[in-house]
Amino acid sequence: MVARAITIPSLSLLAATALLGCTPDTPIELFEEPIPIRIGATMSQTGAYATQGGAALNGYRLCEAHLNSSGGVLQRPVELIIYDDESNSERARELYTKLIEEDNVDAIWGPYGSTLTEAIAPISEAHRMVHVSPLAATTSIWEQGREYLFMVLPPAEVFLSGVIAIAEQHGHRSIAVIQEDQLFPRAAGQGAVAEVNARELDLVLHETYRSGLDDFSALAEAISASGAEVVAMAASALDDFIAMQNALADHGVELAFFGTSGAVQEFYDALGERAEGVLGLSAWEPTLDHPGISEFTQSYRDRFDRDPSFHAAGAYGTCQIWTEAVRRARSLSADSIRRELLDLDIFTVFGRFRVDERGYQEANQGVIIQWQDGEKVVVWPAEQARGAIH
Question: H or E stretch including 244?
């Protein structure tokens, strides 16, 4: 039976509601100095995913600070042990094995992205460790009978659906889909193709390019030759979006819309005016009305001197989800936490969390933003839009 949805404010506000501590009838083991709950994770602090991973790391660290300033979890402080996986699957596997088998952490949180999540999921499953994944979205990861893995993001297959919907709304029929040859981009690209077909639009180009490509000229020329009015692009690395937009501009390719599977400030920082009008999927924006979002955003700005991206909010929301499940379980038992996660229907700073029996997200679909005068403006879906499409 799925629980009625509740809202969870930013963790810095939770002391007053005792969300992070024990209820009065919770058994409490007394320590002269409470033993910290040690939570292990990796995050991509270097390598191809460093931009996204760095923001997610900040989200984890901010949540750790808020938890501890609000009394901890189960009346114990929280200590995060986070290693740099270097955006490398093999390194991530090594480090999660170390966290579980050598560091003997009490719990784990997930790394950045579908590729690394798929790499380490067999390890967390083998050790029966609950693994709430902040930033993995590829459906196939949740179709392998795993019991302890939980999705927070919208599914990858819907990441570019809004771009295709916007194209149709504006009378554009010729669509090109470009995808990196990695787990998440392939899924997002296939989702875009399915959306094109479902809307009976014209798929004039569907191209997969190798990871690490540094010259996007050939792709720009292929897009130009295809007659595409709209390009939907899925990639894991931010630099690919930047390189693609530069190549399109350098080759004089005129499009109605260029849409990407991820929208972060660094894109505009790198491109300036060339970013104007570009569409991008954001699983979260600070202008949305999620509970505690203003407090979270201001706290993030105060600590890191920049606005949070959806990667930061996803990591913070993951912390909220895990914490609420632990609070309800009154235990760090993985099986107890798992049962609570399967029953949760809650709103966090990041948005709504509700999963099916696979741990697969059912409630979060994300939003499409457009870069307008240097700002991200939510333009789709209509019920969440904060401005008109230019």
Answer: helix 238-250
d(CA 367, CA 285): 8
Strands (E), the chain: 6-7, 37-43, 78-84, 107-109, 131-133, 149-151, 174-180, 202-209, 230-234, 257-260, 279-282, 346-347, 352-353, 367-372, 375-380
Q: Which two tokens stand for residue 124?
A: 């967390």
pLDDT tens digit string along 84-111? 999 999 999 999 999 999 999 999 999 9
Angular region, 181: left φ>0, alpha ψ -120 to 50, beta rest: beta
Residue with tokens 């949180």: 109
The predicted model scores a pTM of 0.81
The per-residue pLDDT for range 300-357, each reduced to its tens digit, is 999 999 999 989 999 999 999 999 999 999 999 999 999 999 999 999 999 999 999 9
Instruction: Report the length, in residues, of the chain.
Output: 390
Q: How far is residue 298 from each of residues 13, 62, 367, measured CA to CA in Å?
A: 13, 11, 21
Other C-beta atoms closer than 10 Å to the C-beta of 181 total 14
